[in-house]
Amino acid sequence: MSEIKTVGVLTSGGDAPGMNPAIRAVVRRAIYHGMAVKGIKRGYNGLIEDDIVDMNLRSVSEIIHRGGTILYTARSKEFMTEEGQNKAVETCRRHGIDALIVIGGDGSFRGCRALAAKGIKCIGIPGTIDNDIACSDYTIGYDTALNTAMEMIDKLRDTTQSHERCSVVEVMGRHSGYLAINTGIATGALCILIPEKSFNVERDILSRMRETQAQGKKNFLILVAEGVGQVFKIAEEIQSKTGIETRATVLGHVQRGGSPSLRDRVMASQMAVKAVELLSNDKYNRIIGMKYDRIVDFDIEDALSMEKELDPHLIEVAKVISI
Question: Most CB contacts within 10 A, which of 2, 23, 48, 269?
C-alpha cells in the first residue's frame, strides 16, 4: 500500500491549454487509488496563503474542453524566498498533503526541487506552450498554441496578400524557437528568426525578399520568435530599404488561450495518470516527460540539468522550402 494518502495539485507559471485535462486526470486517478485530493489555487501563492480546496470526481466535470486552468495560476516572488518556501511546507503539513503534483514549466519545477529539499514529495508535469522543457520532447499546451498561431497567421496572410505587403509577425515561446520554427514552416514564412540562431537583416531577410521578388513574389511573411523580438524595428528597416509596405504584428497572449487540441487533452491525461501511478508506487521527486512517443519520468535533479536543442533539420527544412 502506498504511504501517500493525500495529494495536492497546482498549476504554476504561464497558463497552457491542457492544464484542465491534466487536473481532471490527476483527481480521478488519485481517487481511483483511494487518495484524497486538495486543489491549490494560484500556484505556489496558494500554498503560502493557504488557498486550498477539497476536490472530488464532480470538481473536475466538464473541464476537459476548457482552456486556462480552473485552479488559476500565478508566478510567486515570495515563494522564491526561504521564508515563502517554509510557509508552503507548513501549509502542506497542516492540510496533511503527503505529495504535490505541479503542472507548469521550468520555473515551476525549480519550485518542486526546493520543496523536495524540505521533505515534500513532488512530481512535475510539463505544461507550457513554449515546449522548452529539456527532459521532454513535448509539453502540454504546445500543440494548441501552434494551431492558434497558424490560424491567426493564415488570416493575416489574406490581408498581406491583398495589399501586397510584408508582414513581420512575432509569436510566443520565450527563449525557445519551437513555436516560431514550426509555425513558420506551416504558414510558408519566407524567413524565420529564432533565438537559437543569429541573424543578419540584409543576408537573412532583404536578400531573400529580392530573390523572390525577381521570381514574381509580391507579398512576404517574416516570422520572429519572442526571444528575438524587435519586430517593429525589423519592419521599419524592411520598409525603408525595400519600399514595400511592411506591418508588424505581435500575436501575444491569445496563443495561450482556447480549447485544448485533441493531442493536448490526451497527452495531459496520460502524463497526469503517470504522475499518480508513480506516487501510488511511492516514487516521487520526478519530472514526467515524453521521449520517442513514450511517457517517461526523470529524477528532478537530472531533469533540471538537461539542455534542449532545436532540431537543426527543422531549420534546414524551413530555409529550403521558403523561396
Answer: 23
Domains: count for the chain: 2
Q: By three-state DSSP, how is residue 11 classified?
A: strand
Q: How many CB atoms lie within 10 A of CB 72?
A: 17
Residue 223 in contact with residue 185, Cβ under 8 Å?
no
Residue 250 in grid coordinates: 505581435
Indicate if the alpha-carbon torsion angle 313, 315, 316, 322 is positive or negative: positive
170 shares its domain with 216: yes
- pLDDT (tens digit per residue) in 103-161: 999 999 999 999 999 999 999 999 999 999 999 999 999 999 999 999 999 999 999 99
Question: pLDDT tens digits, residue range 259-271?
Answer: 999 999 999 999 9
Closest CA to 297 of 125, 103, 119, 118: 125
Catalytic residue, candidates 106, 130, 143, 264: 130
Whether 130 is catalytic: yes
Same domain membership, residue 129 and residue 81: yes
Nearest to 125 by CA among 115, 138, 114: 138
What's the CATH number where 286 sits? 3.40.50.450
Own/partner contacts of 207-214, CB < 8 Å, gap of 24 or more, are 208/322, 208/323, 209/166, 209/238, 209/242, 209/244, 210/242, 211/323, 212/323
Strands 191-193 and 220-225: parallel
Q: What is the structure's pLDDT at 1?
A: 55
